[in-house]
Amino acid sequence: MEPQGIVVGYDGSREARRAVEWAAAEAGRGGGRLHIVTTYEITWPGAYYAAVAEQVDAARQAAEAILAEITDEVRDLSTGVDVFGVCAASSAAATLLDLGDAGARMLVVGNRGAGGLTNLLLGSVSQQVATHAKVPVAVVRGRPDPSLGPVVVGVDGSASGDHALGLAFEAAQERGRALVAVRAYPPASADEARERVALEDALANWAGKFPDVQIAQLVAPGRPAAVLVDTSHTATLVVVGSRGHGGFAGLLLGSVGQQLMHHADCPVLIVH
């Protein structure tokens, strides 16, 4: 299968439903495809024997039922979006990563899951997908309705940071929101004026490509994760690169990215 669109994991949990709703809205803005994925994985030893065939079949039917329900619901509510359901007998992380490799433009996961069919738990599936995907990964978390507020992006001058900046401009334009570009620096080892110049240089190229996007700049001393978590309280989306350097020293998934996955107050887009 070639998704060529947005792929979202779903396990029937409230958090996964939020992820599907967010993904459907994102697909609607771009007029693309939405693939809703539910998996079931039989892990006990007896699963390999014919005696438990009916348990395997029950797990499949349960997965197909919750998938059909959410797929029908999204089709009824979303216009301009082609919605597809995918049910797979495999691990959730592996399935989502494979679909990312097959051509998805974005993977979407909730920050927690039901733990039964897909085990979409932060620290397991969400973290595995955000760490190993080759495409952008959105982790839907935070306050119930983060539809208002600007798009916030962390800027550090790295390659993935520049890619994140481009996607942040695109997200701000699609939503009709302002963009807040954030550069944090260690108070004892950097000069604010120099950091501000670096931020302006990073923004110059993208600002020319998105002239309708209103831009605000935030240059602040402190730990990058703390600064970004603070801005997330009034943001609609926080965008960061998966790896970074310079002002966002140590911007690796597992440090800044991981902290945002745990503590941000709005959805987080991690850009690879």
Order of helices and strands: EHEHEHEHEEHEHEHEHE
How much strand?
15-25%
Integer count of domains? 2
Task: Assign the CATH superfamily of the largest domain.
Answer: HUPs
Helix/strand/pairing category: alpha/beta
CATH topology of the largest domain: Rossmann fold
General form: elongated
Approximate helicity band: 40-55%
Task: Name the average pLDDT.
Answer: 86
CATH top level of the largest domain is Alpha Beta
The radius of gyration computed from the alpha-carbon positions, rounded to a whole number of angstroms, is 19 Å
Q: What's the architecture of the largest domain in CATH terms?
A: 3-Layer(aba) Sandwich
Note the main sheet: 10 strands, mixed
Could you write a compact summary of the structure shown?
The protein has 272 residues and is of the alpha/beta class.
Structure description:
The chain is an alpha/beta fold and 272 residues long. It has two domains: 5-140, HUPs (Rossmann fold, 3-Layer(aba) Sandwich), CATH 3.40.50; 151-271, Rossmann fold (3-Layer(aba) Sandwich), CATH 3.40.50. The chain has eight helices and ten strands. The chain has helices spanning 14-30, 53-77, 92-101, 125-132, 159-175, 192-209, 224-232, 256-263; strands at 5-9, 33-39, 82-88, 106-110, 137-140, 151-154, 179-185, 215-221, 237-241, 268-271. A ten-stranded mixed β-sheet has the order 3-2-1-4-5-10-9-6-7-8, with helices on both faces. The chain starts with a strand and ends with a strand.
